[in-house]
């Protein structure tokens, strides 16, 4: 299942648009992230294109995300030999959870804690309690392995809260750029992007989805845990 070495993925910033790591790469360390995947339909991508085209008039360096998800953890570091026990503990914790419906239709601007990246996202406006329940179980797994729980420093958070850690803002990141672009995007830009969402054909149905599985990515390995 795994290579015979504990060497993690090589760090090459040229391959990910110059993004700055929030922790250094070390031999045998595997960046690990737990999330709910979001399968984008063609109509969703059409909406995303409209949003990105408008947002780029304010911040031209914005680029579209390659894949979409809703985070249940921040990115943490696992030693290679911890990966399978970590995944098994995660499976045990979420085994009883049922799939659920959620809506993500509120545009928000986010930065990471270091303010080295800015994101345009769609925030969850219904189904929030289900995500909180999942995060509570994921956090227990993190604590078992002495790792950081969700929404502590290094979390992704709305910039408008000025560093205060409020309830998690579950969201689908749509686009990102290097650096802190919040000043350019808050205010008129944010209002105009929300208008595009609200006026988009069938947006109410389009932005309603089911959480059907939890996924854990560790290095270049993916583990899926279907919800009941």
Automatic annotation (TrEMBL):
Per the UniProt entry, the Enzyme Commission number(s) are 3.1.4.-
Q: What Pfam families does the record point to?
A: HVSL
Q: Which UniProt keywords apply?
A: Hydrolase, Lyase, Nuclease, Nucleus
Q: Where in the cell is it found?
A: Nucleus
- Decide whether keyword Hydrolase is in the record: yes
Q: What is its main location?
A: nucleus
Q: List the catalytic activities from the record.
A: a 3'-end uridylyl-uridine-RNA = a 3'-end 2',3'-cyclophospho-uridine-RNA + uridine; a 3'-end uridylyl-adenosine-RNA = a 3'-end 2',3'-cyclophospho-uridine-RNA + adenosine
Q: Which InterPro entries does UniProt cross-reference here?
A: Cyclic_Pdiesterase, Usb1
Q: What class of enzyme is it?
A: hydrolase
Role summary = Phosphodiesterase responsible for the U6 snRNA 3' end processing. Acts as an exoribonuclease (RNase) responsible for trimming the poly(U) tract of the last nucleotides in the pre-U6 snRNA molecule, leading to the formation of mature U6 snRNA 3' end-terminated with a 2',3'-cyclic phosphate. 3'-5' RNA exonuclease that trims the 3' end of oligo(U) and oligo(A) tracts of the pre-U6 small nuclear RNA (snRNA) molecule, leading to the formation of a mature U6 snRNA 3' end-terminated with a 2',3'-cyclic phosphate. Participates in the U6 snRNA 3' end processing that prevents U6 snRNA degradation. In addition also removes uridines from the 3' end of U6atac snRNA and possibly the vault RNA VTRNA1-1.
What family does this chain come from, according to its entry? Belongs to the 2H phosphoesterase superfamily. USB1 family.
What's the protein here called? U6 snRNA phosphodiesterase
